[in-house]
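Please fill in the sequence for the structure shown.

STRUCTURE ENCODING:
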């Protein structure tokens, strides 16, 4: 059993799912790094040099418009990896990967990941299945933005962040959340105030604390359960 499998709460679940032989082959190429808040892992139009397997950090994949405004279309935590264009053959993307929760991750050179992927085996299978799960998240995000209220979207998004980092205290500002969700800051302030009044969260400058996850789940839109079930079905992620 690999060290990852012995302590899955501290590691990346994709890597933890590898057979010991495949994991051991990757070990020399995995570098432990600390990701900083706001750090850009790759920029739109740039060739991706490294892929990242978050362990306690969280990364937002965002689309950037000409006026430099951005909207998040997917989150990546310890259930996945950042840099799927590398093994899909594109090598670059029109999106930006930006660190939203600072903490640890494992980094690998992109060319090594691509070579390992092309060998086949469980790594290839897991990465392809993860890509399907990520596409489900992207599609559901589009539906969510069009059909659900900002309060329900905020509740869902906070649950997703909580799942990614497994921490109750989330270093998030309302300004940043409004940018990520593509809505006005005043709308986030109102929605967060409502959730706080119900005792679901507590927020102050630069921090949101999850107080009642069960009740927050009840307030979230159906998209949260839909995406979570698909991740569980495909990747057996609890």
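FILLED IN BY: designer on duty
SEQUENCE:
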């Amino acid at each position: 059993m690999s060290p990852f499998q012995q302590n899955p709460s501290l590691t990346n679940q994709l890597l933890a799912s590898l057979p010991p032989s495949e994991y051991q082959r990757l070990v020399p190429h995995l570098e432990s790094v600390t990701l900083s808040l706001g750090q850009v892992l790759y920029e739109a139009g740039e060739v991706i040099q490294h892929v990242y397997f978050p362990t306690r950090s969280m990364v937002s994949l965002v689309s950037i418009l000409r006026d430099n405004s951005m909207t998040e279309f997917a989150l990546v935590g310890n259930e996945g990896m950042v840099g799927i264009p590398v093994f899909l053959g594109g090598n670059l993307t029109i999106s930006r990967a930006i660190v939203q929760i600072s903490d640890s991750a494992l980094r690998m050179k992109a060319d090594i990941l691509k070579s390992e992927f092309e060998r086949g085996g469980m790594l290839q299978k897991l990465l392809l299945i993860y890509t399907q799960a990520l596409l489900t998240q992207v599609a559901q995000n589009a539906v969510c933005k069009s059909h659900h209220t900002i309060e329900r979207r905020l509740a869902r998004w906070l649950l997703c962040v909580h799942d990614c980092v497994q921490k109750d205290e989330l270093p998030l500002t309302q300004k940043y959340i409004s940018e990520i969700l593509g809505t006005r800051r005043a709308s986030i302030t109102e929605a967060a105030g409502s959730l706080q009044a119900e005792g679901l969260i507590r927020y102050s400058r630069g921090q949101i604390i999850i107080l009642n996850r069960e009740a927050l789940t009840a307030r979230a839109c159906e998209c949260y359960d839909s995406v979570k079930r698909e991740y569980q079905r495909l990747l057996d992620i609890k």
